[in-house]
């Protein structure tokens, strides 16, 4: 098959978030698969036949057996810290459990957070071109794709994910680098702060699997207070949360104190500025992926791909030349 014919194949879109990875094919309305962006390794020695087999678990299997596993996120604050684990997760995206396709047959649109280190982008390109042998690659800023999903090309995107919070002004599809505000305080930091607050209330959460329980408590029980000072003065109603082992936990003031971290990063000694006003449309969960799906399916986008031939000729410069 000619290289142009391969580039014309339906592109794969991977929204590579710090906490959740979303993958599917361009042109689809929502991603085909979403799963936590972590790997799990058994914490204990296997001593019985028929026990859970395998040394590394990804996706639904890692979620299902997380109590037996040491959970590790390869990305922290939008930056890949462990490339071996990240590569295994991308490999899983193409597997029979996910997209069921060969990486050599489809171009890839990969997302990244704004103001990410250029070395991070270069290493991602190296992995996709040299390990996965993709025919073409494009790396796009998440905020640009989120705006594109709303049908606009000009606006300001405020995006707070698991690893990074950023505000990005965009004009006619191009981000304004000099005006981007990025804060490395986001959902995972709120989870860590909630764990600290729950410990002060008498609950013990120590392991990586228990941290995932804290994250679920955050998602189901926490809320943003309109007036934190008033809520502090009042007797806050406690919410009863049922833990995986069947026991219950009463969650009190931590419900609104933990999310306050986004507005007061100094609560954990961070000197970043906080957020104060949020516009949150309902479709925001998949907006970055949807924007990538729309963009990669356009005929006019074909000239934006960095082909394997271009990468072999120009290396990392080819990636930086076509990234926005």
TrEMBL record:
Name the SUPFAM superfamilies on file. Answer: Actin-like ATPase domain (SSF53067)
| Pfam families named in the record | Actin (PF00022)
Its subcellular locations are: Cytoplasm, Cytoskeleton
Q: Recite the UniProt keywords alphabetically.
A: Acetylation, ATP-binding, Cytoplasm, Cytoskeleton, Nitration, Nucleotide-binding
Task: Name the family.
Answer: Belongs to the actin family. ARP1 subfamily.
Q: Domain of life of the organism in this record?
A: Eukaryota
In the UniProt record, does the keyword ATP-binding occur?
Answer: yes
- What GO CC annotations are associated with the protein? microtubule organizing center
Question: Record's InterPro entries?
Answer: Actin, Actin/actin-like_CS, Actin_CS, ATPase_NBD
User: Which molecular-function annotation in GO is an example for this chain?
Assistant: ATP binding
Its biological purpose: Component of a multi-subunit complex involved in microtubule based vesicle motility. It is associated with the centrosome.
Entry-linked Gene3D superfamilies: 3.30.420.40, Actin, Chain A, domain 4
The name this protein carries in UniProt is Beta-centractin
CDD domains in the cross-refs: ASKHA_NBD_Arp1 (cd10216)
Principal localization reads cytoplasm
């Amino acid at each position: 098959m000619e290289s142009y014919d391969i580039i014309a194949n339906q592109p794969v879109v991977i929204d590579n978030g710090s906490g959740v990875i979303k993958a599917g094919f361009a042109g689809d309305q929502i991603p085909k698969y979403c799963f936590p962006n972590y790997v799990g390794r058994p914490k204990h020695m296997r001593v019985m036949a028929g026990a859970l087999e395998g040394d590394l678990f990804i996706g639904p299997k890692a979620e299902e057996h997380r109590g037996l596993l040491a959970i590790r996120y390869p990305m922290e604050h939008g930056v890949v810290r462990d490339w071996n684990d990240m590569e295994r997760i991308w490999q899983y995206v193409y597997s029979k459990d996910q997209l069921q396709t060969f990486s050599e047959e489809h171009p890839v649109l990969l997302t990244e957070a704004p103001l990410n280190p250029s070395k991070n982008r270069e290493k991602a390109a190296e992995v996709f071109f040299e390990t996965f042998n993709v025919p073409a690659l494009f790396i796009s800023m998440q905020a640009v794709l989120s705006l594109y999903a709303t049908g606009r090309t000009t606006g300001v995107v405020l995006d707070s994910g698991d690893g990074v919070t950023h505000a990005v002004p965009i004009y006619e599809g191009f981000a304004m680098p000099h005006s981007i505000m990025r804060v490395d305080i986001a959902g995972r930091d709120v989870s860590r702060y909630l764990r600290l607050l729950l410990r002060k209330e008498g609950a013990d959460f120590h392991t990586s699997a228990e941290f995932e329980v804290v994250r679920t408590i955050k998602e189901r029980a926490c809320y943003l207070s309109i007036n934190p000072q008033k809520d502090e003065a009042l007797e806050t109603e406690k919410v009863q949360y049922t833990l995986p082992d069947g026991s219950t936990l009463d969650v009190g003031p931590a419900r609104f104190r933990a999310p306050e971290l986004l507005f007061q990063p100094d609560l954990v000694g961070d000197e970043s500025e906080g957020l104060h006003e949020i516009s949150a449309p309902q479709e925001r969960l998949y907006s970055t992926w949807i924007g990538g799906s729309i963009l990669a399916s356009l005929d006019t986008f074909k000239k934006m791909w960095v082909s394997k031939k271009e990468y072999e000729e120009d290396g990392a410069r080819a990636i930086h030349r076509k990234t926005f």
